[in-house]
Amino acid sequence: MPRRVWDWLKQAKRNLASARVNADAELYEEACFESYQAAEKALKALLQFLGIDRRSHSLVFLAREAEVRGLIVIHEVRRCLLKLDKHYIPSRYPDVYDEGAPADYYSRDDAEECIRCAEYVVAWVEERVGEAVQEV
Fold first, then answer.
1. 132 or 51: whose pLDDT is higher?
2. CA dist 65 to 23, 44, 136, Å?
3. Each residue of 8-31: pLDDT tens digit?
4. What contacts 42, CB < 8 A, 6 or more positions away?
5. Cα(76)–Cα(65) distance, integer angstroms
6. What is the 3-state secondary structure (H, E, C) of the chain?
7. Mean pLDDT, all residues of the chain
8. Of the options 1.20.1250.20, 3.40.50.1240, 1.20.120.330, 1.10.10.10, the CATH number for the domain spanning 5-131
9. Which band of pLDDT confidence, cut at 50, 70 and 90, is reported for residue 103?
10. How far is 125 from 49, CA to CA, in rounded Å?
């Protein structure tokens, strides 16, 4: 199985850039979803690095898969994954809410917090992968 670590990380960073652009355009729900996507792709890069190909979309369970391989997922990363996981569906689908569209439920504060979390997760993954590359 070829590892695509750097491809996953590259796309994670593009999703993060997209999150920032969406936040600037006041598309806060999109910023939250793109932040979620950045974290998911960063975690999949980490799993690829560990030799794991996982198809889940749950950030929490992707991180648990890494823990099974002995990686310690620190509290702040865990907190961010829990926050971001909650935006996978509600940020995109109106039928999640009794009425209104996702755009009616998201704010600049939501977008900024999601972007901060995604930045943190991506940086954390890059450190893990970078440390491991240096050990080889």
1. 51
2. 31, 10, 22
3. 999 999 999 999 999 999 999 999
4. 8, 9, 12, 118, 121, 122, 124, 125, 126
5. 17
6. CCCCHHHHHHHHHHHHHHHHHHHHCCCHHHHHHHHHHHHHHHHHHHHHHCCCCCCCCCHHHHHHHHHHCCCCCCHHHHHHHHHHHCCCCCCCCHHHCCCCCHHHCCCHHHHHHHHHHHHHHHHHHHHHHHHHHHHC
7. 93
8. 1.20.120.330
9. very high
10. 10
Predicted confidence (pLDDT) at residue 113 exceeds the cutoff of 60: yes
What is the number of other CB atoms lying within 10 angstroms of the CB of residue 11? 18
Domain-wise residue ranges, the chain: 5-131
Alpha carbon distance 119, 106 (integer Å): 19
Structure tokens at 3: 């590892």
How far is Cα 33 from Cα 28, in angstroms, rounded to an integer?
Answer: 9
